[in-house]
Amino acid sequence: MNINIAVLPGDGIGPEIVAQAQKVIDAVASKFDHKVNYTNALVGATAIDQVGNPYPDETHEVCMNSDAVLFGAIGDPKYDNDPKAKVRPEQGLLAMRKKLGLYANIRPVTTFPSLLDKSPLRLDIVEGADFVVVRELTGGIYFGEKGRSEDLKKAFDTCTYTTEEIERILKLAFSYAGKRDKRLTVVDKANVLATSRLWRETAQAMEADYKDIEVDYMFVDNAAMQLIQWPKKFDVMVTENMFGDIISDEASVITGSLGLLPSASVGVHTSVFEPIHGSYPQAAGKDIANPIATVLSAAMLLESLDLLDEAKAVRDAVNESLDAGVVTEDIARDGKASKTSEVGDWLANCIKKN
Amino acid sequence: MNINIAVLPGDGIGPEIVAQAQKVIDAVASKFDHKVNYTNALVGATAIDQVGNPYPDETHEVCMNSDAVLFGAIGDPKYDNDPKAKVRPEQGLLAMRKKLGLYANIRPVTTFPSLLDKSPLRLDIVEGADFVVVRELTGGIYFGEKGRSEDLKKAFDTCTYTTEEIERILKLAFSYAGKRDKRLTVVDKANVLATSRLWRETAQAMEADYKDIEVDYMFVDNAAMQLIQWPKKFDVMVTENMFGDIISDEASVITGSLGLLPSASVGVHTSVFEPIHGSYPQAAGKDIANPIATVLSAAMLLESLDLLDEAKAVRDAVNESLDAGVVTEDIARDGKASKTSEVGDWLANCIKKN
Ligand SMILES: [Mg+2]
Ligand SMILES: [Mg+2]
Questions:
Q1: Of B146, B194, B222, the CB nearest to A156
Q2: ipTM of the complex
Q3: Are A235 and A187 in contact (CB under 8 A)?
């Protein structure tokens, strides 16, 4: 098939790691006989520097015309350290989310056998953990009405959700569960919050349409505990924006492989695939950054286009590289580190010869 | 000194575990020459059964006239399993919190060397962790205006905070930090929420009054990660109601000693000391429940009355009992379990002879 990918490398290590993901996609395309068209576009600090806007209209056009967006990372210390900066790289991300209608953030949490000793959890607790956190991304208290009283001594934030918003993301979560172990955990605080009660009612009403999925409901404080005590019990977790922010970040550290985790942001118009780590400016241009999270994001991209064998080929290659110790310095043993570009080359070759 | 303690044993294992805490307090009183007057009062399911109200006025009077409240646990399956029950035991807790103005929940998280292998975290990560979570208990989104649109398709919750509410609990948190390692972490989401910005501004303004305390600010999603990655870095954490609910529950499982953790709820009129675990109805009356969390709550009670040596005597006895293996079946090794009452007797004797 023909695949149109918008490539937004962004800042810091973004360009280097995205380049490796492209090598991997190219290898898959040649092996499985697909034609991939890449269109590069500016985002983040790079975009501010060049055209004064962290998410230029031109970039938005490129994204809108793509089947999927491959995203690197954004953020530059020169903006972080300047409190007077009028435009910030991060605003590019928010503008992109909004304009592309990215309503769901998907974070798979998997363990890598060769990295388990980096987990803060006990081996027997974390080994084999494999779940997905689905977070609502455009609603809730982060986007609600907020403000301060006139005397400045009182502040408020409002959390709102509509049945429509909740149904949309629950559909996605049910469908993820259907492709996995068919278990869905709805995380809320329905014993206290009106919005959570709407989430729970909506999910309960949808259960009938997904009879093959086993649904359970868990309060967010309980979920925060169980993630640490029994991470293996989860398959797909779905929750509102703020709970998802906390839970997905908590989940990202339990496997000890924060630098290896990919993500997808599913949108109304297209979807964006990116590593969960940042732009790591100290490492930029040094060919030392770990490209695996971006490569695994490319696997999610392929999966989103229903190219399941292709996605599996990428994941198999990643596992082989970890087993073979062809890894960057952040996870290397005994000082045997490969360069970013070497890891990309190795993965591409591995896919071709497998 | 004369100490007036309101004793509210509550339901399930409540009476048994509170009885052990009283033995311990009596031992301390005799050793340090204090006079303790206990006044028992009804709360929870027991109170509903006897007088139809889970927090009767009479109980409230007893609490108001006390220097401190020693609380067991509430909850009974016969109410949980009856969706039509008009009054529930848990309402007693809410009524008590409200009427006594319990605005802060304090949860110390400590590790017990003999129990570290029960922690879900790696030994080297958790060993020596020792911090306190201070949670605001009467404000925020749990108590804000909430509701549903007329067509029921939209729900909302409101989070509000005033400078006064925030200052009150920050004062308490600063004073806890002053008595400990002099480090305070304010947990918020000030990059997104208006209420969090008010929290942060208020804390920043108070820093000048507590020059000996090192203050840092952490977003709640980051705190949820760091609690697992580096629990030893924290001394006192303070946060708003909902974040505190999530963070304090997450914190309670990292040491593997959930059943041993005490708490204090600090009030305008008096303060309440109770284990963080529940009423464990399956074990009620069997003399097998672990009394340590309640005994350590009694230590917090003594501390709140500035009886620091007395509190230390209780904690030393608890550590000795753990080292000696005089423990209930939930944490016993090699089947060598003591009864609830035996642990209480052992602790009381230990305090007297030390
Ligand atoms: Mg986050
Ligand atoms: Mg809780």
A1: B194
A2: 0.94
A3: no
